[in-house]
Write a structure and sequence with these properties.
Helix content of chain A: 25-40%
Shape of chain B: globular
Oligomer: heterodimer
CATH topology of the largest domain in chain A: Aldehyde Oxidoreductase, domain 4
Number of helices of chain A: 20
Structural class of chain A: alpha+beta
Number of strands of chain B: 5
Number of strands of chain A: 31
Distance between the termini of chain A: 68 Å
CATH superfamily of the largest domain in chain A: Aldehyde oxidase/xanthine dehydrogenase, molybdopterin binding domain
Radius of gyration of chain B: 15 Å
CATH architecture of the largest domain in chain A: 2-Layer Sandwich
Strand order of the largest sheet of chain A: 12-13-10-20-17-18-19
Number of domains of chain A: 3
CATH superfamily of the largest domain in chain B: Beta-grasp domain
Number of domains of chain B: 2
Number of helices of chain B: 5
């Protein structure tokens, strides 16, 4: 091993600059790979008036765990320089809208001195050798790839400098790089593309390199529009169902009338097989699959199928029965309900099932042939998917090629590979390639949900101080069987005794009480494994923190304090106080508001980031009485002010986008978005039943402020804003109406605002009146 | 099998498919035009929003047999066909405000936005909050506010 770095990259790059190790990989063109040398972030000690012991997530949270887990294998992340001067990088993560292809291109552009437009970031196929390092979740992507991606790019730059030095016969230290060109002091120039072959190595060698200091950043920290924005606005961006795979015809599954029911027999197979366009029908584990010339003909066939179904896993269950299970499962508090020395605040909150369905439904293309299989899908755990598909098909994992496509949203849904597994099973049975897509109605009824939960909070206070703050969160079991994205942890999470430990671990690593409230504790208990569940953006945080912040408002009232100032003085972390103070200032906290309207304020720390949200809500009849067909109008959030400190920010424009999405989700979870369970089936079957935020619920005034970097490493951002926004909206609603809300979303207890679609046939027919609704 | 002709993004096309197949599937599965997306097939999410003779409509809710040979169907792929420009001003506004996240709904959002601006003008006013509140297109990434900003800006340029 020797240091092949040609020259100190900058005058200050010598003593005192930490060097990182990487590789120049044997290849015909310049190919570099990085090895991570990043220390874990130092913990921030808590200081307090009535100190709370640091909670696990204060010191070592889920992002830390995921970052540490990537250490042994991140050297396999490689950047390639092409003859056309572009740099190529296959990102071992899923892009589902969160902007990581853009931020990754920025990291490479920064260290390479190459325009962002010259960096091509694609999504890597499943690579089992990456172990933990191909998992997209828990807002960990930028945190865990920030250093290794830059190291690879920095090594590439040094190799290009060395190649140029040899070509021009000058010391590398005299050369400069800018915009993909190496220049000599006397004006000779060479593009990276011309140097790429000469910079390559015939053997793999280890090299050391220093990285740019934040003060020298020219790309990181600047607002960068999405690299795929032009493709998106012209309709050229390709999602899985837009790919043209020879012979892969549209395929849909006729699904059972209750959750996880199973097909027993089909009465009219021959008649349906003879329908226009239909090529194949196969009974699979989840239902009856139909392959046809068009998806429209799949829908016709699915509706025509007469299937006898076996029971499901939740037949007879309803919101009320699950609520009873949850209430029975709550763990005891440490502090007794009656305390002679202090006042007690006891509150119980209920959160309905919610759908994490993206706009792109579950879908995958599968081409299974004897001895091999090829899969195309948006997957956040492609290695686990590859293993599971191989097991299902009776193949070795190496015989299953898994391509990760661009995803049309995830919100937790794409941690699972339900459609890819189903498509593989169908393709094998039919002996033909299939393009499998779930119907929207199936998404709501048979798709994964965010579990229903009950959160109890007990706080005590005396002499103006909060002495204890305990939370007991009971939830329908969250399926973590995707593990951390590779097969071994996926299997551990499936063990009968392993998964509660896994859930409890995730809970402890993500959930915090950000205030100095004396004795604080949070415990999770889980019930009922009959549902198809999964993490939704924020995992537990939106519900857990919403419950907490509502109790904080109660405590402030009990202590005669202003909700904002009470929070500000009780916070553990000065970074949290800074974001809170910022929204209070920008949002004119405490300004006089008309009756029926109010402000709410909340914050949320997660994954080394901090966000605060201030909202204003209108609960007057003018807002709640709006009449829009097939809509839930309800109270209107009229204004949102958000301040975020995500550590070192790679792309502030992308960070603001993530905050905006999280705010929109938080509004939905607080006010409108829930699933109603009755007789073993969710009643919602359409976007006009499941009231995710629409334009008529959108605040017309949104301000999102990115605070200056408070560190030299990025924090997580993908899920950050949901919990704070949900809590702020809930608090505002409570203040506007004078009644603390305890059931979420707040419209859940009202009579259903729609007529549920039938369960047989399982999907509705498409309308034919589109021309009459044109505008 | 029935034969259908219509004008797609400025050029005549012919397809042989049953009358009742919805236009969305004719575009995507038969003709390979994938800008219009499937989000529900119920005329609800509006991810497939395109234009028919200049008006926004949902191809998922129109049987191909309902089209006339002279009908002009414009998908997102055909929208840039404005004089002397690669992009429609609404697409440029979408880029300027970096509206998209995953991008799945955005072709439909842009097609809806252009039609909504024209509709507001036909009613004698420029597009505003009340008009935005009539746009039904779902964005599950929650980009609605940036959509409002982009429409306001884009409308000034056409």
């Amino acid at each position: 091993m020797e240091d092949q770095g040609a020259a100190p990259r900058r005058a200050d790059a010598g003593l005192g600059r930490r060097r990182f190790l990487g590789y120049v990989v044997a290849a015909p063109t310049l190919l570099v790979a990085a090895q991570l040398g990043e220390a874990v972030l130092a913990p921030t000690p808590a200081a307090a008036a009535v100190p709370s012991l640091p909670e696990p997530a204060d010191l070592y949270d889920l992002t830390d765990l995921l970052t540490d887990a990537t250490l042994p294998t991140s050297g396999l992340i490689s950047v390639q320089l092409n003859a056309d001067g572009t740099a190529a990088f296959a990102l071992p993560r899923a892009e589902v809208g969160q902007g990581i292809t853009t931020s990754t291109a920025m990291l490479i552009a920064e260290e390479l001195d190459l325009p962002v437009s010259q960096v091509r970031v694609t999504l890597a196929d499943a690579r089992p050798e990456l172990l933990f390092n191909q998992f997209t979740g828990a807002s960990s992507t930028t945190v865990s790839t920030y250093t290794p991606v830059r190291v690879a790019a920095a090594i590439a730059r040094e190799r290009l400098l060395a190649a140029a030095a040899a070509r021009f016969g000058v010391p590398a230290s005299t050369l400069t790089t800018a915009a993909g060109v190496v220049s000599t002091p006397d004006g000779r120039r060479a593009g990276y593309g011309e140097l790429a072959a000469a910079a390559a190595s015939t053997t793999t060698i280890q090299v050391g390199v220093a990285l740019k200091q934040p003060a020298d950043f020219k790309v990181i920290g600047t607002a960068q529009p999405r690299v795929d924005a032009l493709d998106i606005v012209t309709g050229r961006k390709q999602f899985a169902m837009d790919l043209s795979v020879p012979g892969a015809l549209p395929t849909m599954v006729c699904r059972p009338p209750t959750i996880n029911g199973t097909p027993l027999s089909v009465q009219n197979l021959a008649a349906v097989r003879a329908m226009p366009g239909v090529t194949d029908i196969a009974t699979v584990s989840t239902g009856v699959a139909v392959r046809a010339a068009t998806f429209g003909q799949c829908i016709d066939a699915v509706r025509a199928l007469q299937v006898t179904w076996g029971p499901g896993t939740e037949d007879g269950s309803s919101d009320a029965t699950v609520l009873a299970e949850l209430k029975a499962a709550g763990l005891p508090f440490a502090v007794p309900p009656v305390n002679l020395l202090a006042h007690t605040v006891d509150s119980t909150f209920t959160f309905a099932f919610a759908s994490n369905s993206a706009l792109e439904p579950n879908c995958a293309i599968a081409d299974v042939r004897p001895g091999r299989a090829e899969i195309w899908a948006s997957l956040k755990t492609p290695i686990a998917a590859q293993g599971a598909i191989a097991a299902k098909l009776g193949l070795l994992p190496g015989a299953v090629t898994v391509h990760v496509t661009q995803g049309g949203g995830s919100f937790g849904r794409k941690l699972f590979f339900d459609a890819a597994l189903e498509a593989a099973e169908i393709s094998q049975l039919m002996g033909k390639p299939v393009k499998l897509m779930w119907h929207r109605t199936d998404e709501f009824r048979q798709g994964r949900t965010h579990p229903m939960s009950v959160s109890r909070v007990r706080a005590t206070h005396a002499l103006g101080q909060v002495l204890s703050f305990e939370q007991r969160h009971a939830s329908v079991a969250t399926d973590f069987s995707h593990g951390l994205g590779e097969v071994i942890t996926a299997l551990v999470a499936k063990l009968p005794v392993g998964d509660i430990g896994f859930s409890e671990t995730i809970f402890e690593l993500t959930q915090q009480t950000p205030y100095n409230f004396g004795l604080t504790s949070q415990l999770l208990s889980e019930v009922d494994k009959g549902f198809n569940t999964g993490s939704m953006r924020g995992i537990y945080s939106p519900n857990v923190r919403c419950a907490q912040e509502l109790v904080v408002d109660q405590l402030a009232a009990a202590l005669g304090q202003d909700p904002y100032r009470f929070r500000s003085q009780s916070l553990k972390d000065p970074r949290a106080r800074a974001v809170l103070d910022k929204v209070a200032e920008l949002g004119s906290w405490g300004r006089p508001m008309p009756a029926g309207t109010a402000q709410g304020i909340a914050l949320h720390p997660e994954y080394h980031s901090m966000v605060a949200v201030l909202v204003e809500i209108d609960c007057t009849p003018a807002a709640t009485g709006r009449r829009i067909p097939d809509a839930w109008t309800g109270p209107r959030v009229t204004k949102v002010v958000c301040a975020v400190d995500a550590g070192l920010v790679v792309n502030p424009l992308g960070l603001q986008a993530q905050m905006l999405g999280g705010i929109t989700d938080g509004i939905a979870l607080a006010l409108t978005s829930g699933l109603h369970l009755a007789n073993g089936v969710f009643q919602e079957g359409s976007w006009d039943n499941y009231f995710y935020t629409r334009q008529w619920n959108t605040p017309p005034d949104v301000q999102i402020v990115v605070l200056p970097a408070t560190g030299d490493t990025p924090g997580g951002a993908g899920e950050l804003a949901v919990g704070a926004a949900m809590a702020a909206v809930a608090c505002a609603y409570g203040r506007a109406t004078g009644t603390m809300p305890t059931d979420f979303p707040i419209n859940h207890a009202a009579p259903l605002a729609f007529d549920p679609l039938p369960t047989t046939p399982p999907v509705p027919q498409s309308p034919v009146d589109g021309l009459t609704r044109a505008y | 099998m029935p034969h259908h002709t219509f004008i797609l993004n400025g050029s005549p096309v012919s397809v042989d498919v049953e009358d009742d197949v919805r236009l969305l599937w004719v575009l995507r599965d038969v003709l390979g035009v994938t800008g219009p997306k499937y989000g529900c097939g119920l005329g609800v999410c509006q991810a497939c929003t395109s234009h028919l003779n200049g008006k926004a409509f949902n191809p998922c809710s129109v049987p191909v047999g309902a089209l006339q040979p002279t009908d002009q169907v414009t998908t997102i792929e055909g929208l840039p066909a404005t004089v002397g420009k690669d992009l429609h001003p609404m697409q440029e506004a979408w880029l300027a405000y970096d509206v998209a996240q995953c991008g799945y709904c955005q072709p439909g959002q842009i097609m809806a936005a252009v039609a909504k601006v024209h509709q507001a003008r036909a009613a004698g006013h420029e597009i505003g909050d009340a008009d935005f509140d009539e746009i039904r297109n779902i964005c599950r990434c929650g980009t609605y506010f940036r959509i409002r900003e982009a429409i306001t800006a884009g409308a000034k340029n056409f």
